[in-house]
UniProtKB/TrEMBL annotation:
GO BP annotations, alphabetical order: translation
Domain CP-type G: 13-178
Cellular compartments per GO CC: cytoplasm
NCBIfam families in the record: GTPase_YlqF
Family to which this protein belongs: Belongs to the TRAFAC class YlqF/YawG GTPase family. MTG1 subfamily.
InterPro entries, alphabetized: G_CP_dom, GTP-bd, GTP-bd_ortho_bundle_sf, GTP-bd_ribosome_bgen, GTPase_MTG1, P-loop_NTPase
Annotated protein name in UniProt: Ribosome biogenesis GTPase A
One Pfam family here: MMR_HSR1
Location(s), subcellular: Cytoplasm
Length: 288
């Protein structure tokens, strides 16, 4: 599909992160639970270095629970403190705060030894666009202070936000890496909404998604779009047309509006109406 996207403001975001890291006690890396590896920006790992980090799997309500459990075990096995979140509903937010504060315990103890007492933990939230950073901040603050949206790239600047008495958060824009040579990763970022829909070939992305659904989750397709599993077309393009016909997405003359059908399928997938999905599997990882 040859998806490449690296807007100028993301290069600026990297510079801002580097400039602020010296002020930070703990980094919160927010990942999409549906794609924990594909949403893990290698640039973030390079930027953060040895800084204490909490890996938080967000959108857990949209991911397969058994796979999420495997991913939590994977990250813990690599020495990371982890948290499981559904920022949209607030589930897991308090546990995340507790783990961030615990991660900063050693740093605060050193400050107390120097006579600096009562300083709040300073944390930075990092993640790719549209992973749910603003939704998480809003839940932590209990108000819609941070602007949110259903498209990547809403957050542009930086702001310090006070959470209770013991935590200060530095919000940052979503950061994608300069090149996406792995087109499997690019596909997963596109289909989950991390990349703007207008910069990739939606037809190819949806056809690939339909192939996956047809092969692995045929029952979900049939249930959602009132199809017969025995009569599912093997070819993704024909399946797209069939779904469009069933949904009544027709132009003048009875021609299927393929663009409308593609957007319906994409919206259904992202909203969980086709069920829970985890597109990254731990057993696919190669040994480091």
């Amino acid at each position: 599909m040859h998806i490449h996207w690296f807007p100028g403001h993301m290069a600026k975001a990297q510079r801002m992160i580097r400039e602020q890291l010296s002020l930070i006690d703990v980094v919160i890396e927010l990942l999409d639970a549906r794609i924990p590896v594909s949403s893990a920006n290698p640039v973030i790992t390079e930027l953060v270095g040895t800084k204490p980090r909490v890996v938080a799997l967000n959108k857990s309500d949209l991911a397969e629970p058994a796979r999420t459990a495997e991913w939590l075990q994977h990250f813990r096995g690599r020495g990371f403190t982890t948290a499981l979140l559904d920022a949209a509903s607030g589930k897991g937010s308090k546990e995340l705060v507790n783990r961030v504060e615990a991660e900063a315990g050693e740093k605060l103890a050193r400050l107390m030894a120097k006579g600096i007492k009562g300083r709040a933990v300073r944390a930075m939230i990092l993640g790719i666009p549209n992973v749910g950073k603003s939704s998480l901040i809003n839940r932590l603050l209990g108000t819609a202070t941070a602007k949110t949206g259903d498209k990547p790239g809403v957050t542009r600047g930086q702001q310090w936000l006070k959470v209770g008495k013991n935590l200060e958060l530095l919000d940052t824009p979503g950061v994608l890496w300069p090149r996406m040579d792995d087109q499997e990763v690019a596909f997963k970022l596109a289909v989950t909404g991390a990349i703007k829909d207008d910069i990739y070939d939606m037809e190819k992305v949806i056809l690939k998604l339909l192939c996956i659904l047809r092969e692995q989750y045929a029952n979900r397709l049939c249930e959602r779009y009132k199809l017969s599993e025995a009569g599912l077309p093997a070819e993704a393009g024909e399946l797209l047309t069939l779904i469009g016909t069933k949904r009544g997405c027709l132009k003048v003359g009875g021609i299927v509006d393929h663009d409308k059908v593609r957007r319906i399928i994409l919206t259904d997938f992202r909203a969980g109406k086709l069920g829970q999905f985890t597109l990254d599997h731990p057993d696919q990882l190669t040994a480091d």
